[in-house]
Write a structure and sequence with these properties.
This protein is of the alpha+beta class. The chain folds into 2 domains: 64 residues, Winged helix-like DNA-binding domain superfamily/Winged helix DNA-binding domain (Arc Repressor Mutant, subunit A), CATH 1.10.10; 166 residues, Beta-Lactamase. Helices cover 44% and strands 19% of the residues. The strands form 2 sheets. The protein has a 6-stranded antiparallel sheet with strand order 6-5-4-9-8-7, sandwiched between helices. The protein has a 3-stranded antiparallel sheet with strand order 1-3-2. Helix 2 packs across helix 3 and helix 5 runs antiparallel to helix 10. The chain is globular, with a radius of gyration of 20 Å. The chain starts with 9 loop residues before the first helix and ends in a 15-residue tail after the last helix.
Length: 259
């Protein structure tokens, strides 16, 4: 793709425009979008018009824009997350029935915890996680469980890149991660919300490495925590078994093009 005078490609600018939206900024004016994306206003107006025309952005009555349904449609075709959600959902519903608190499914992606699915109930505690939202690895039980059961090079690369911020909260991070691996789960109080506890169990592949993580968020000091961890363990094993089974449309030796 042709580069701009600043050296960034058209694809770079399109990605920055789409990345400018977030949970706190679901709709933006084109001027605000141009500032957040670092794109000239004239270019932003032109690209926004094209993205609206293709359904990747939608325009509100007041002229502001938001992410369009076509992005949701395309993202739901992702084979890895689609299979994970389909297999995990019955188990998540079981955990949600037992614990009666927020239940969520997440993966490690680009140095963040990416929330793939979430179930909630009336009366559940405050929970910052949102589907398709990102959360910090070292500030969530989900992230710590994923990091503990990540391949060693992935874990060490993350710790090297984030050494200062991790050390501020976890002075002996490797000991903590070893403890999580020994126990098979992670629980932390008040990392993000002072009155809650997060409990997370990794969903492991045949090598013992984390594919994803299943978690609950519950009131801090809840006597339900041991039962919640037991329910998460049972569900995580069931999800792992389900993911290991061939699914319709796939077969040994027939790839889906995802590598």
């Amino acid at each position: 793709m042709a580069n701009s005078p600043s050296g960034d490609s058209m694809l770079d600018r399109l990605v920055r425009i789409l990345d400018a939206f977030g949970p706190e900024q679901p709709a933006l004016t084109v001027s605000a979008l141009a500032r957040r994306a670092g794109v000239p206003r004239a270019t932003a107006y032109r690209l926004v018009d094209e993205l609206v025309r293709h359904g990747f952005l939608a325009r509100d009555d007041d002229g502001s824009v938001r992410l369009g349904l076509r992005l949701w449609e395309i993202s739901n075709r992702s084979s890895s997350t689609r299979d994970l959600r389909l297999v995990a959902m019955p188990f998540m519903e079981d955990v949600n029935q037992v614990v009666r608190q927020n239940t969520q499914l997440a993966v490690l992606h680009d140095d963040d915890v990416l929330i793939v699915e979430r179930l909630s109930r009336p009366g559940s505690v405050v929970n910052q996680a949102q589907v398709a939202g990102r959360m910090p690895v070292h500030l969530t039980s989900m992230g710590m469980a994923l990091l503990a059961f990540a391949p060693a090079p992935v874990r060490e690369d993350y710790l090297a890149r984030h050494a200062e911020e991790v050390a501020a909260r976890h002075p002996d991070i490797r000991r903590e991660l070893a403890h999580i691996r020994l126990n098979g789960f992670a629980t932390f109080d008040g990392f993000i919300d002072a009155e809650t506890t997060g409990a997370s169990v990794p969903i492991l592949d045949a090598r013992g490495q984390a594919i994803a993580v299943l978690a609950v968020v519950m009131p801090r000091g809840s006597e339900q925590l041991p039962a919640a961890v037991m329910a998460l363990r049972t569900a995580a094993r069931g999800i792992a078994r389900g993911l290991a089974q061939p699914r319709p449309g796939t077969g040994s030796g027939a790839g889906d093009g995802s590598g």
